[in-house]
Amino acid sequence: MSALTFLNPAYLGALALVSIPILIHLIRKRRVRIIRWAAWEFLLESTRRNRRRLQIEQLILLLIRVAIIALAVLAFARPLFRSLGLPIAASDSRVHAIIVLDNSFSMGFTRNNVSDFERARRVADDLISRVLREGDSVSLVLLSSKPEAVFKEPTFDLGRARERIRSARLSDRDTDYGAGAALCAALLRDVRTPTKEVYWITDSQKSGFPEAGQEKARAAWKELAGLARIIWINVASADRENLAVERPIFSRELVTPQAPVRIEAVVRNHSPQERRDLLVNLNVDGRAAGAARINVPANGAAKASFVYLFEKAGPHTGTIQIALPDNLPRDNIAYFAARVRDRLKTLVLNPRPDRDPTRDESFYLVTALAPAGASQGVRAAIQPTLRQGGRLEGINLRDYDAVIVTGMADFTASERAALQEFVRNGGGLLLFPGASTDPARINAALGTGERFLPARLGAPRTLTEEDALTFNPASISHPALNAFRDTEEVNLGSARFTRVFDLTTAAEDESVRVLIRFSDGKPALVERAFGQGKIVLAACSSGISGSNLPYKPAYVPLVHQLVAYLAAGPTAQRNLSIGELISTRFDVKEANRPVRLTDPSGQTSLQKTTLGAEGVVFSYAGTERAGLYRVGLAENAFADAFAINLPAGESDLASAEDRQIRAAVGEVPVQFARASDDLATVASRSRRGTEIWRTLIYAAIGLLFLEALLAQRFGRRG
């Protein structure tokens, strides 16, 4: 909203001069006495016809003359429009300016060999050199989803501020205008300078106004508008089309040298034109490993898919990259890291074995884990060890990556303690109920004291074949089963269940997640994080008591995926996003030894580890650049690797219009400008408002010419 005010209001008294042409108009009206004369009767009719026209012409001239005087007087009074909320700044008042420089990676978009970020730096430099004066102070904020104040305190050294602007660099983060507004408001709370301004120099990206946290962001904008004037300067190039590669995913959790794995990445086309025959390259461990050509629809996406066989166990890294660069090359490449496992050691506990293998709870499970036979000596990806009877006495659980219990019957206090310690230290536990499972005893054994079960095990439900339940692949949102969302290759929904247990989860427990649900919406697999490890509880058996799942093609990959996910340990997440924590473990013998970290730029630093109950742990939170991070020790320079990828939403370069920005920030006065505008004029308008005296003078001069023209024309006719 705007208000009209005057810099020289004393001149408004001269508006009384508009009475002069009115008085002249009235005086010139002559009073005459009408005398009837027969000869004039012929002219009377003509006079009546012209009188109305003459009155209108005289009224028009009167209004024009009044307007000329009024416009001239108003011009001397110097009217201006200003935004409501903050007073007019005096011409000699000191100014504190916050320059918000958007350094999110979308600002790297380049047009005519100049990036939007370089344009933004030039605008910021121009603001300091032409708008601010000696005695003014300045703060510099680098804007992203993690905004940073370059100066902790306002600086009066404008030259130093210009140097910091010139040395500013792009980040790999996305945009969050609400977070930037909150930081600027916090910086201004203690500033005592009477005139405060915030200059936002940005590409006005739509994705910078996320719906999440919108109310909090609007509150920050409202507070900021009460402290300072807001000037929004858009430096975005026109028609910012872009291609981007998103984080790669693997078709399964367990990657071994024994079988190839599918590696996929989504390629997005943020432009109105289809991209046909686009070449996408796969690179593994620094070598070309494949290529694919895809067609990406306009404003759509397509998958680039590769099948690759890793030659040996250990850490591996790679990239998926678009061969044809565009104007924002930063997001044309995505990174991945994988820890290829030689074998996973899995302990299978069967409390109540059956003499008939086909009715045994563990038979189908062990066969699925090692399809060639668990006792044939064939080197499989998963090495199961079957313990009939289900007791844990004499077993060192530290020798195993995962533990599976089939047909749960009962647990002693010592067994529960052993399983809790195993999971707390990073192990994975998979629990299947069976035909003889007593839910009350299981809940009492594992659910008392420190809560251990992911859900409370309810009574079993027996269904007819007509009412049998199925898995619902559409309910999958957990990363462990993402590969099964696409039912074209492996359809989990083909199995039928006639005996299931109800699983009741605590809504307030954030450590509990549902992996997949049945067709009736109830949980089928539930996970809970416990210490460094994870527990998964199934609502069905691992055998054929109550389902035909072991007979379905999906059974083997499902079991492998679950075991691989659980056995991966606390450092399974090697494919992450900017700012996320990377973590890995070493043997206890490596305690107190420095870890060598190599970042994406190739720089190496020595980091410390911490010693805890789960062993020697290395964690690093400084993942501010996208790329590959390698971790090593003195004798093993490549002990582990992690891939950090860019935030996908930032690749959509669509800019918000001024009205959309106003709607996003709420009822807050914002003055908009472009990089090509005269910034000194923009600043003057922000501080004092928009003066219109020149417009009034030009209008008065125009009316003078119009009055002279009409007076001459009307006079000839009169």
**What is the rounded Rg?**
38 Å
Strand order of the largest sheet: 19-18-20-21-27-26-25-23
What is the CATH superfamily label of the largest domain?
A: Class I glutamine amidotransferase (GATase) domain
Task: Please provide the count of β strands.
Answer: 37
Uncertain segments of ≥5 residues (pLDDT<50)?
Answer: 373-378
What is the strand content?
Answer: 25-35%
Shape: elongated
Largest sheet: 8 strands, mixed
CATH architecture of the largest domain: 3-Layer(aba) Sandwich
Helicity, as a percent range: 25-40%
Describe the model.
By secondary structure, the protein is α+β, with helices and mostly antiparallel strands. It folds into five domains: 2-85 and 703-717, no CATH class; 95-240 and 658-688, von Willebrand factor, type A domain (Rossmann fold, 3-Layer(aba) Sandwich), CATH 3.40.50; 243-341, Immunoglobulins (Immunoglobulin-like), CATH 2.60.40; 344-567, 3-Layer(aba) Sandwich (Rossmann fold), CATH 3.40.50.880; 575-645, Immunoglobulin-like, CATH 2.60.40.10. The protein contains 13 helices and 37 strands. Strands 19-18-20-21-27-26-25-23 form an eight-stranded mixed sheet, sandwiched between helices.
